[in-house]
User: What shape does this take?
Amino acid sequence: MNSATPSHLGAFLKARRAQLAPGDCGLPATDSARRVAGLRREEVAQLAAISVDYYTRLEQGRVRASASVLATLARALRLDEDQERYLYELAGRGDDRPRRRRAPQRVRPAMRRLLDQLTQTPALVLGKRLDVLDWNPAAVALYVDFSTLARRNYVHLLFTHPVCRELHRNWRHDAREAVAALRMEADPDDPELARLVGELSVQDTDFRAWWAEHHVSNAGYGTKHYRHHLVGDLTLDCDTWASPDGSGQRLMVLTAEAGSPSQDALRILTSWSASGNESALPGREGRQG
Assistant: This one.
C-alpha cells in the first residue's frame, strides 16, 4: 500500500474482531447463533465505550480515528504491543516527526564485526523490509550466494527463489510468519515496500492472501526446519537481536543443539564455507533468482 487510509484501518479492525470470541474479552456467552465470526460490531463498540454508529463508520472508512479512540480500541480488541503499534500506524498517528529523506541502508560496523566472528553458524544482518544487508560464509552455504542476487530481501527469497523455497521443510509456516514480520514493519510511505508487496502480490496467491489478513508479528526467536540438498535435515534455533541505535537492523543467527545431528550437519557446511568453496556446493550453479 502506498499510504495509510481509513479503509486500511477498517480492514484491520474487521480482521482482528473476527479472531476474538466474546469470552476472550469478558463478555457473556450467548445461545443465539452468530452470523459473523468473532465479535460483533456492537460488542466492540460496547467494549471501547463508543457508539455503534461511530465504530461502524470507522470500519467503513468514513471517519478518522482520534488517538483516544485508538487507545480504547487497542484495549477492547486485546491487541499486543506489536498490533497496537500497527493500529496507530494505520490510523496515521504513529508519530508526528517530520518526513525525512531515507538514507541508503548500510551495515553498522559493529554488526559487520559480529558476522566476522561467527564462523561456525549461519548469520545474516536484516534491515528495513527484511532486506538482507550482510551475511557470513556459513549463511551462503546454508541458503544461497547472496552476492549474486539482484534483490536481496528475505521475504522475496522465500517466495521466489527455488533453492530457498525448497530448503524450508515447513515453508507455509515460515513464509506466513515472514509476511507477518513484513507487515509489522510496514511504512505506508515507503515506495520500496509498496514495490515489493505489489510484485509479490501479483506473483504469488499465498502472499496476496496472507498480506490481506493483516497478521503482524515481531517474534525474535523460533525454530527452523530445513532440508538441505547436501547435508539433509537440520533443526536450527533462529534468534534475532535488534541494534540498539534505532536503525532497525537485526542480527539473525541460526544455531544447532550441541551434540545433535544438526550440529554435525552445520560443521560440514561451515567446513565448505571456511575453505571458500561455497559456490561448489551441489545445486548452487545456475539456480540464483
Q: What stands out?
A: The longest strand covers residues 232-242. Residues 243 and 249 are 6 Å apart (CA to CA). The chain is about 45% helix and 10% strand. Residues 96-100, 278-289 have pLDDT under 50 and may be disordered.
